[in-house]
Amino acid sequence: MTKHKTWRLGVAGLGTVGTGLLTFLADHAKYAPAGGQAVVTGVSARSRSRPRPFDISGLPWVDDPVALATSAEIDIFVELIGGSDGPAKAAVEAALGAGKPVVTANKALIAEHGAELAVLAEAKGVPLLFEAAVMGGVPAVKIVREALVGDDIRSIAGILNGTCNFILTEMEATGRSFGEVLGEAQRLGYAEADPTMDVGGFDAAHKISILAALAFGCAPNFAAAEIEGIENVDLLDIQLARDLGYRIKLVASADRSSDGVLVRVHPSLAPLAHPLAQAGGALNALFIDGARTGRIFIQGPGAGAGPTAAAVAADIADVMTTGTRPVFQVPASQLEPFKPVDPAKSIGRAYLRLSVKDEPGVIAAVSETLAEAGVSIESFLQKPIENAPAILKGGVPIVLTTHAVAESVLKAAIERIAALPAVLDRPRLLRIARI
Ligand code: HSE
Hints:
Layout: E1 6-12, H1 16-27, E2 37-44, H2 65-69, E3 76-79, H3 86-97, E4 102-104, H4 107-124, E5 128-129, H5 140-147, E6 153-159, H6 162-174, H7 178-187, H8 196-199, H9 202-216, E7 226-227, H10 235-243, E8 246-257, E9 260-271, H11 275-278, E10 283-290, E11 294-301, H12 305-321, E12 347-356, H13 362-373, E13 377-382, E14 396-402, E15 405-406, H14 407-418, E16 428-432
Parallel strand pairs: 1-2, 1-3, 3-4, 4-5, 7-9, 9-16
Antiparallel strand pairs: 6-8, 6-10, 8-9, 10-11, 12-14, 12-15, 12-16, 13-14
Helix pairs in contact: 1-12, 3-4, 4-9, 5-9, 6-7, 13-14
The protein binds L-homoserine.
Residues 161-163, 198, 203, 302-303 line the site of L-homoserine (HSE).
């Protein structure tokens, strides 16, 4: 690559991350990795006039992001529009098709269309980089794709959504419900007006799908992820889990076995002293388990203008200073097809909360039913509750944890328990994280 070159950036999408990047570049006017210099020569967004924390009036404006992506005035296209389809996808395809390097923070785009975009990027011999798509300012993508390329990663698990982590942390700290904390987070601007991507677990699922592809050399396959969000996490379960020595976190995991790859996002229990349980507020945290290196733990801010723009700037520096690596660690033509594992076959420990009639023989009936179904109880807690919440439907809660059991066996046992006359509602199942 030419040394001391000026690299002209086209930036599409001027929300939190886009304006964060423009601020960073303005504050570092001579941002010059290896002597090259980055200058913004075009910007595009849905609205030109919307109030922003950065004044864009001095920057060349292009209405159509696809036109910006293919403009002769830019050398690198920076996509910060978001969304798996629509203008973001069209613009990234156009830029790659025109042989321009692309830097993006778009997790949905990479998780859902990463394999086909990798083919396009590699056919053109240009980089497609997405450090900011996963864990914001924490260099998770670089660690998995590059630093651990000499290892054989077996599993990845962690907290990949700061909004959910903030909500769960606040619920425990303040004793407020999911709805109350979400409402406050929205008022403060921490959570989106439509919080579905975050609280429904989809954002975390996009991120873990990308990490799975990088770690295991398979095509990303968001559609194969098993996803449960935090909308139904009840304060009662947070409190009961704590009594048992656990904290509830939204855990995203990817495991590889000889059967294939299992990608899941679930509210899960982590032991209170475990680093994932200790990662509070909006932090992200991740364990990577490699056959040679063992376990690596990384933690840091997974969102926000500063950290995410720093990750975008690092990718821009990579384009300016290095050659082109395969998009997903191995060349796109060698990516294995994603072979999903049936979640029913997965084995793990579980937390079950039941609402039962307070009468003789109920605990015996529950434990007999579990024994007959082949589920072994690890711990059992019955706790008198004052001002019992409505979800108990007039019953009292009993909570148990199980030893490791196949999910199919556990689900069958839950059906049998739900049918017991003394059980007033469907048992609440939460997984105990395998971390
Ligand atoms: N909305 C995400 C989060 C950050 O709450 O972690 C961007 O992916």
